[in-house]
Amino acid sequence: MKKSLLSGLACLTLGVSSAFAGASGYKSSAFGYGAGATGGGSATPTLVTSASELESALGASGSKVIIITKDITVSNHISVQATNKTLMAVKGVKLISNQQNSSNSGILYFKKGSSNIILRNLTFVGPGAYDCDGWDNLCFDGVTKAWVDHCDFQDGCDGNFDNKGLTDNITISWCRFHYLKSPKSGGSGGTDDHRFSNLIGSSSSDKPSDGKYSITWAYCWWDSGCVERMTRCRNANLHFLNCAWTSNDAHYFVGPQNATAQFDGCYFITPSKRVSGGKNFIFYQNYGGTNGCKFNSCSGPSSYMTNSGSVSSPSYSFSTQNADAAYSDIKSYCGATLTVSTSGSIAESGSSSSSSSSSSSSSSSSSSSSSSSSSSSSSSSTSGSTTTWNFSQFSSTVTLAGSNYTYSYNGLTLVGNTTSSYTSDYVSKNGFHCNGASTSSIRYIKYTPSANGTLTVKFKSNNTSDNNRTSAIGTAVGSPIVTAKCSTGSMSASVSSGKTYYIYFVSGGQTITSITFTASGSSSSSTSSGSSSSSSSTAASGLCIFTGSKPSMSAVSVTGNYSTSKGSVTINGTKYTTCVKMESSTSVKVTVSGTQTVKLYFDGASKSFKVNGSSKTTSSSGTWSGTFTSGTMTITKGDSMNLYAIEFSNSSNSLDPDFGSETAIEEVQESNSLKVEEGKKVLLNGNLVILKDGKTFNLAGQEM
Description:
With 704 residues, the chain is mainly β. It contains 2 helices and 58 strands.
């Protein structure tokens, strides 16, 4: 069902359109069925560092914002009735259970009477699956009105996150479910592989007071290791919006009993190990009652996604992103990827700025929307630290039909929210064309830069005699930073890393012909075909890290998995906990311009990896440096270890190109009596250096 960029647009069936989903993943408030959950509101944060402090804070009266500041290992699951509470964790901090038994396992259990709960940026690490009638990493048993956002669930003993009892009106967004540990067999429950992630309703009679569990799952990811219950649901109305199922071990995805499920813009793979029998492996087994399943513009094997029964769309507003584009965003932002400060501020994934809400266009009623897959052949060119989208590779016109649409294009999102008669928008080699615009007929392009810089937009009026038509760049539609008339043909604005910007039409009959983003201090761009999401931007000096589960520099691109639970590496006094796991399928591409030294920070000493297919070995401190000239280096797996950062430095005076560890003849500690032969390469305090003219230089030619 995957479509190329020019193969046409798939029709989506929506309720009411709004800026419900977003590529960056950050939302300032609850939405969906859990809308209205406010948690502890703006209460002064309570900082906790132990299980007893956490239990006491959750069970206390009044509104509280609780922030976990260090790893907490739970010896017995915390069982609590909590009301008006927000619970968050600073980045990299985990809630851990090593108990694998029927009594003490599990981490958090919210019991009957709990309400108005918000959980964000939590990482739950369980002991591994064991069918011993144990407890879950997280369980809601009678919770009403809750929002669980940007959490990571790993290796629950019984399940990762279950909802049962009187639980109702829940939203679960940007959460990742996976199993990293092998299951334990021989449990009293009789299942040797109990990697069963999410149960809704514990029996046929288990249900909330209104008879149906109403749960929104938005941008959630059932990743490697999940086998069943993704979800298994009883007495439920479920909405899956832009979610992804990519576990190759999966037996089935949804097993209903008197339940309905609507899937909008979801991404599926066909698991090779799924059970046989039954054509529809996603909606695999009917356990009785009145059931329904509906798929709208999902990506995956179409023969397995069969609509059945009657399903009513959710009553709340939402918009659907293209399934393939959503999966790309999920891989970058899903899980505990927010940055939470001890003062309670929240930074968007990968963003250095504190949280702020950028509103989008207003809602409008419609029964249809359009979306399209993005393509690696889409026209986006880069040079230096500049990215240009010029639309030149659209060989044919793509009509953005209908009164509402969302269209993904190489890191840009084109959005139409049209209540007037203007519906003839399209994308072609000439650009993004808007046939008409007004306050009730808004079209815009949404973009989130990964660095500070300048955003420049070029446009033209389709009526060359009309120079009064205008466009704008703003932090929200209707809040312009700059505006420009078509007579000028362009406009520019300074933009900040991680913040979302909107390029929108103030008056219509215009075409945006190109968009250019230039990072601060970078050179001008050239134009050639390629993908803006690839590593065709080149790095200046600085440190590229993976905070927020994506590279902080556009010169680096990653194909592979991230982790925040593999330990840490300290660089210049700062601890970094997010890494790229060097696995057999991992590929890290680094593009340099001119002559630059590239230093890699791993957590493995004297271990091997590959650069452009050539084996390299890390130093005793887990680092490796090489000097490269204009091009792309590809880093792939050798031994098992993790990559935490990539450091770039200008190397116009570099003394030794491609200085691998095989040339590091000896490792020495700094001392006043250091005597090393002239020109000999050594590891000095873990850094590769060379002696020349009686002085010590680093690989960039800088005297140390």
